[in-house]
Design a protein that fits this description.
Radius of gyration: 22 Å
Distance between the termini: 58 Å
Strand content: over 45%
Shape: elongated
Largest sheet: 10 strands, antiparallel, barrel
Length: 312
């Protein structure tokens, strides 16, 4: 059986940002995506291995790209808009998983390797005794890099503390392979280096952020991250790095279409993301009202962020 599968520079920059957001949010997806159709063919036991890598990628991305300098300051007006892109690396281990054979195949409770949501064609298992064949679901995404995009606003500063907000609605991802999605997040970061004296040798800050991401009507992800960051500015360049403790979880809730719409049961499954700790190293180039940044993140899931920021 086969499953179906950021005065002169700021104004135009702000106008561009608004235009991008309106464009992204201006359409809607009417039909079910390939991902939704595929997932609904899995029962609660089968879906875990198939979709776990997707939770790992989203969890790593949504917790990344929050800060590109630890220079928070103590007091004064600060407003910045960042357009952040995050990309997680899909490795070979994310392309296959060990699935359990259905009832009636020998050996009972046996297993075989087949494609995850990032895999290729599903594996066909043939029972040597009966000749029956069972084919695992094909993957949905044929890619080595899994992206996420989000605008972020940072505002402050009061007593060395700034607030951060993220929000975006995306009607469809990957040419209709994913359903519409919505991401929002809130957090704050606090200067530690303000306690080091008038001229600290480097800047240091700690940040906390919470994110919520919904994918269509069947997937909900939450993520939290505590990030300790240090940075040092030399002329136009800011070198930054840090360590973070994070967690993410993904809940799938849908009706499993066993054989027909009249024969279905509710699937409600929770999975944890793979990244729990990461090390970050990056560079920001400060062109006054415009800043360019990029960093690499190393953990169980390797991922990269980059983008552009506008503001003070």
């Amino acid at each position: 059986m086969e499953h179906i599968g950021s005065e002169n520079i700021r104004k135009p920059a702000l106008a561009l940002f608004v235009g991008v957001v309106l464009l992204i949010g201006g359409t809607t997806a009417s039909a079910q995506s390939r991902f939704e159709v595929t997932i609904q063919q899995f029962n609660s036991d089968e879906v875990r291995g198939y979709v776990q890598p997707l939770g790992d990628m989203f969890g790593a991305n949504m917790n990344a790209g929050l800060s590109h300098s630890a220079d928070v300051g103590k007091d004064g007006f600060h407003f910045r808009i960042d357009i952040v892109g995050m990309i997680s690396v899909v490795s070979d281990e994310h392309r296959s998983y060990t699935a359990t054979l259905p009832s009636g195949f020998i050996p009972q409770g046996g297993s075989y390797q087949t494609a995850t949501v990032f895999g290729g064609a599903g594996t066909t298992f043939k029972d040597a005794n009966s000749g029956l064949e069972y084919r695992g679901s094909d993957g949905v995404f044929s890619t080595s890099l899994f992206p996420l995009f989000v605008p972020q606003v940072t505002i402050g500063t009061l007593f060395g503390t700034q607030a951060m907000v993220r929000y975006i609605y995306i009607p469809s991802l990957s040419g209709g392979k994913l359903p519409s999605s919505r991401l929002w997040g809130v957090g704050m970061r606090h200067s530690i280096s303000q306690y080091f004296g008038a001229t600290p040798p480097f800047d240091a800050a700690v940040a906390f952020f919470y994110s919520d991401f919904s994918l269509g009507n069947i997937v909900e992800l939450q993520g939290t991250v505590v990030d300790l960051q240090i940075s040092k500015s030399v002329l136009l360049f800011t070198f930054y790095g840090g360590i973070a403790v994070q967690q993410s979880s993904m809940e799938l809730r849908y009706n499993h279409q066993a054989t027909s719409a009249s024969n279905s049961n509710l699937v409600d499954v929770a999975l944890s993301g793979g990244n729990t700790f990461r090390v970050t190293t990056g560079l920001q180039i400060d062109l006054q009202a415009v800043r360019l940044f990029a960093d690499a993140n190393f953990g169980r899931i390797q991922h990269f962020t980059g983008g552009i920021g506008f503001g003070l």
